[in-house]
Design goal:
Radius of gyration: 28 Å
Shape: elongated
Distance between the termini: 55 Å
Structural class: mainly alpha
Length: about 110
């Protein structure tokens, strides 16, 4: 009986130690995730501001061009110009996102 009680006591202590380590790991993981989210948002907000303001200004320019008669969607050249503007905007957004989120980790050898 005494040996069984000793093993049971050891098991309880071991179990408490494992729970404490698990709680510590959860805390560290949550803090790491929070820091990563904070860091990602520090990278995201400049993109949102730059491309958000750029999109608003571009939309105002297109709207004024359509309303003023400088752009006519019935003309092939004007439709192509609008397509180039939109494609260029999306291409530049993609390039900025690649260099903002992927390129900093290339030196570490990590994918993200």
């Amino acid at each position: 009986m005494a040996v069984g009680a000793g093993i049971s006591g050891f098991s309880a202590v071991f179990s408490l130690q494992m729970e404490a380590e698990a709680a510590f790991c959860r805390t560290v993981f949550i803090e790491t995730v929070q820091e990563k989210l904070d860091m990602d948002m520090l990278r995201v907000w400049p993109i949102v501001c730059q491309f958000g303001v750029g999109a608003i200004l571009c939309w105002i320019g297109i709207w004024c061009g359509l309303r003023g008669g400088y752009l006519d969607l019935k003309l092939r050249e004007d439709r192509r110009l609008l397509g180039i503007l939109v494609a260029g905007y999306l291409f530049m957004l993609a390039v900025v996102c690649v260099f903002t989120f992927l390129a900093p980790n290339w030196s570490d050898g990590g994918p993200s």
